[in-house]
Amino acid sequence: MSKSPRIYLSSPHMGTDEFEFVREAFATNWIAPLGPQVDAFEQEFCAVVGSRHAAALSSGTAALHLALKLAGLKPGAEVFCSTLTFSASVNPIVYEGGRPVFIDSERLSWNMDPSLLEAALASRAAGGILPAAVILVHLYGQCANIAAVAELCERYGVVLIEDAAEALGARYFTAAQAPQLSIAGDQSLGAAQAGGSRSPRSRELVTDNQEPITGAPTPRVSISPGTIGRMGIFSFNGNKIITTSGGGMLVSEDETLIRKARFLATQARDPAPHYEHSEIGYNYRMSNVLAGIGRGQLRVLEARVEARRRNCAFYQQAFSDLPGIEFMPEAPWGRSTRWLTCILIDPARFGFDREAVRMALAAENIEARPVWKPMHRQPVFAHCDRFGGDVAEDLFNRGLCLPSGSNLAEADLARVVDVVRRVGGL
Ligand SMILES: Cc1ncc(COP(=O)(O)O)c(C=O)c1O
């Protein structure tokens, strides 16, 4: 008997314009390395996320590596990072000889717990040596508590780098303060950047009053994650909400940082007619062809967010009567993209654990994945220091990511639901 078609966790979903941009790259022979599609993709990306400057790169990992170099990370220095994440958030710290220190999650968002970050910063300040940077990860399409983390980084003068690889399209709400919204002639920007982050209010913001506002008398605006820290990174890996098959973006308000990133990403070529190098460089730029795909994908980003949120709502409705199943909460400070719909399974109440459900789905040719195994539990990082860790461990032990692609049909979601309900005996 032939198997049912495979349902993937999150597969690429092309729109209608990608091919035209790629065709343009071919027609003009701008195949590689850089070219007009890259320039346009950077500008259009800036417009979408509300950042001033961006460098299109070969991956999100490359973007994070350059961000750490630009933050001045030196061998032996510490970098604080969310423990509940993918290893790519941490590996670049080690590329530079840095020492990762892991910070546990809070339950409200599954992202970095600001109170633990505060304790970690206070302990290092007491010892007289602060970390070179904080890497704040926005997991599974959901913003961390950015304002709290940014305030701490500001207070301690530590560079904030936002890893928004999984959170393109998410929104972070902040109170509207009309007189401070204009970016033109904003003198506070440079001052804010001297510290770890910049104020969410010191830049152009998108009003977003359709969002449900609980108990907030003033209108709210929303901004993109990745744009508040000194630098932010995004990924266009094949499983992300939009993809260039592989690629990443580094964003910052500081043009000098982005210029330097572009320089380092193209083998650090000093200006000279011959090849002259006074620094070690990298081959990290995005190709013109892939940038064409990215331009097309940007045009359907909002539709992709809506589709993924619809998937999550479908699962929520379908599991509403199941005991022992909880969804990743949507924190009140933002709109998650629900890049992946994640559930927690309580074996005592559901009757089976996360692995039993995952394996039942696998038997039906359906891909589901455990929530990220925390970095402090990874053999390669077992020696690293950490603050907390129990919350991330619990989320890993009970968490499962369900198929969440924006190209899934309702019949696909229904197949997933059927298997989970069958495991639960319903
Ligand atoms: C949280 C996080 N950070 C960084 C990355 C790295 O991005 P890339 O695969 O584009 O290198 C990813 C995804 O792959 C990720 O999920």
Short description:
This protein is α/β, with parallel strands linked by helices and 426 residues long. The chain is 35% helix and 15% strand. The strands form 3 sheets. Strands 1-10-9-5-4-2-3-15 form an 8-stranded mixed beta sheet, sandwiched between helices. Strands 7-8-6-12 form a 4-stranded antiparallel beta sheet, with no helix packed on it. The chain has a 4-stranded antiparallel beta sheet with strand order 11-13-16-14.
Structure description:
- With 426 residues, this protein is α/β, with parallel strands linked by helices.
- It folds into two domains: 18-298, Aspartate Aminotransferase, domain 2 (3-Layer(aba) Sandwich), CATH 3.40.640.10; 301-423, Aspartate Aminotransferase, domain 1 (Alpha-Beta Complex), CATH 3.90.1150.10.
- The chain has 14 helices and 16 strands.
- The strands form three sheets. Strands 1-10-9-5-4-2-3-15 form an eight-stranded mixed beta sheet, sandwiched between helices. The protein has a four-stranded antiparallel beta sheet with strand order 7-8-6-12, with no helix packed on it.
- α6 (146-156) links the parallel β4 and β5.
- The radius of gyration is 22 Å and the shape is globular.
- It binds pyridoxal-5'-phosphate.
- The site of pyridoxal-5'-phosphate has 14 residues, from α3.
- Residues 59-61, 85-86, 88-89, 137, 163, 165-166, 235, 237, 248 line the site of pyridoxal-5'-phosphate (PLP).
